[in-house]
């Protein structure tokens, strides 16, 4: 869950997590090593290019596998329909 998804009554009496975050001046020198460890670009522009590439690749995979997908169909107007899956047999 992300911050704000839920709350605990009375929790405002506890520490504010934001006071424990590092200031940007301390984060910046660590950024290159952090991005390298996660294999992600260091700039926003390059990060967007990476995400678009990953989304394009995922969409191409879905498109290529669609004809073999027996549980999903599209109406002529493009409305998707997902068939209910049958329960699997219990494994002994």
Describe what you observe in this structure.
The structure is a single chain. The protein has helices spanning 24-27, 31-38, 44-65, and strands spanning 72-74, 80-82. The chain is mainly alpha-helical and 92 residues long. Strands 1-2 form a two-stranded antiparallel sheet. The radius of gyration is 23 Å and the shape is extended. 0% of the residues are buried.
Please sum up the structure shown.
This protein is mainly alpha-helical and 92 residues long. Helices cover 37% and strands 7% of the residues.
Task: Note the topology.
Blueprint: H1 24-27, H2 31-38, H3 44-65, E1 72-74, E2 80-82
Antiparallel strand pairs: 1-2
- Global structural class: mainly alpha
Helix content: 25-40%
Low confidence ranges: none
The major β-sheet equals: 2 strands, antiparallel
β-strand number: 2
The average pLDDT is 87
Biggest sheet: strand arrangement:
1-2
Radius of gyration: 23 Å
Q: Which descriptors would you attach to this protein?
A:
3 helices; mainly alpha; 92 residues; two-stranded antiparallel sheet
């Amino acid at each position: 869950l992300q911050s704000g998804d839920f709350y605990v009554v009375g929790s405002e009496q506890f520490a504010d997590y934001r006071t424990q975050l590092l200031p940007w001046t301390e984060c910046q020198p660590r950024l290159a090593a952090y991005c390298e460890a996660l294999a992600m670009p260091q700039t926003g522009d390059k990060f967007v290019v990476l995400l678009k590439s990953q989304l394009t690749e995922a969409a191409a995979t879905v498109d290529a596998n669609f004809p073999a997908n027996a549980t999903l169909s599209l109406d002529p107007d493009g409305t998707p329909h997902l068939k209910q899956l049958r329960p699997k047999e219990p494994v002994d």
